[in-house]
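User: Show me a protein chain along with its predicted structure.
Assistant: Here is one chain, sequence first, then structure tokens.
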Amino acid sequence: MENAKSNDGNINGVKEKGKKKIIRIQVSKTKKPFFFYLNLAKKYIKQGNDIELCALGMAIPTVVIISEILKSNGWAFEKSIMTSTVSAKEDKEGRGIPKAKLGILLGKTGDIDQSTVAVASLGKDADGKA
């Protein structure tokens, strides 16, 4: 596993999957503005990489909004969603507090294979209307 450093200094995990890379973007509610993460995701998608948007706790809605913007504008499609609970240390005693974790894996829409396109067009008539 390689590592790529983003502009904000966070280390994003990079996994090789065949010729494609999966870039992990760890979204924070407080460190960078919303549009920073949106533009970073668009940049990696345009390069042909798959991206995994990850968030904990209060940053989860930001990841969902970024994902929906990328999908609704036709830049990406959803490959998978991963949910879990992690133990985060937040107090001085070092006790673990459970936090929700969300990961959304997105791929570039231009890389959809023909079977996916065929399934998506089943509900349309000859003119492409639903």
